[in-house]
Amino acid sequence: MKNVKSIRTGFIVVVSVGLVISSACLSEPTGPPSPGGKVIVKQSGGAGMLISECSDRFYITETADYIINGTVEKVESRWNEGRTGIFTYTDLRIENYVKGTPFAQNMLQIVTPGGTVGEITQWVEDQPIFHEGKKVRIYFQEVSGEFSIVCGPFGVEER
Description:
By secondary structure, this protein is an alpha+beta fold. It has two helices and nine strands; from the N terminus they run H-E-H-E-E-E-E-E-E-E-E. Strands 1, 2, 3, 4, 7, 8 and 9 form a seven-stranded mixed sheet that branches. A two-stranded antiparallel sheet has the order 5-6.
């Protein structure tokens, strides 16, 4: 009986810690506004990684409202306003659309939790990582006016 109680207590602790971490990752980044009216794509990973369909390319393609090919132009990490978290801002020049209606601008800014500022690194699991100069294909969706990458890192391919 004691083992069942300790397992249940351990599960509650793990879930509670997971919720605290998730809420920190999903907090709205409060950096400066995106210059030039770029479309902002926010990425939080987390819940999207729990569905098994994320390993299926057909599912990702069908779920995506937009599939774009582009080149990473700039990657910059900075603290949020309260210095409680680091976010990485990736500027991506859109080369062409595979799916979706083109935006007025040919730039996206992808905001992901985590990054390195000075000597401090905040690593957040299940996030796509971008490198300047790399060509990528990104699958993303729009939900209630907000854009996010489908299935986190599985929705980004290097070309």
